[in-house]
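Batch manifest line 229
LIGAND: adenosine-5'-triphosphate
JOB: complex structure
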Amino acid sequence: MTALLQIDRLTASYGSVQALFDLSLTLEEGQVVALMGRNGMGKTTTIRCITRLLPATGGSLRLAGQDVTRLSAPRVAQLGVGLVPEGRRCFAPLTVAENLLVAARPGPWDTARVCALFPRLAERMTQVARTLSGGEQQMLAIGRALMTNPRLLILDEATEGLAPVVRQEIWRGVRQLKADGLSILLVDKSLKEIATVADSAVIVERGATVWTGGIDGLTPELTDRYLGV
Ligand code: ATP
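JOB STATUS: finished
ARTIFACT:
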């Protein structure tokens, strides 16, 4: 079976500073894969490479078998990679409805379905994004990515800095997306929540994949060694 996302021995640099040394990862269609590792180990850099916001200096990225290593960021988005970047970016002066509409591309996801996933957004359709709470902005950022009807949704720290009750709403949404069959790559610090949704995990340390396996294989020894502070 061809994987939806196949990353092989990826390398990448910020100017003269190398950040990725040997990053490999496989995500099958319909799977949720957690990309894990301590701060600064290369998770966001990996995501920037997948979305082509940062060029890879070596290795390869394949999407459903197609080599996307050298494609432009808009082309990769067109091929179905939907990104929810760190820091929940929305268009601050636009309303919730406008934020969703400007992202829309044909497919099963539309405003009504996003509102069904996150009912809080339904109550705020005419409110400008800048006046939303952090959690609502995050729901909107996820909604915007879904409106592009992605084949692969990438969530970078989607629950970072949010109140526990809002985190729960977001995790409920992510579990719903998984149940709907969406393929998801996620970065998050909450092991407990990751365990409820991820099929497998990839641990990255200093820009290299050091462990890959089913989520049940993520033992306390591994988490202490690679994720402990
Ligand atoms: P965090 O959870 O803190 O976001 P991360 O695993 O996502 O961590 P990255 O942001 O991918 O880590 O960072 C990997 C390495 O690349 C780090 O050493 C970081 O300092 C470096 N780095 C990240 N962004 C830049 C940048 N714009 N310019 C230079 N170096 C960068």
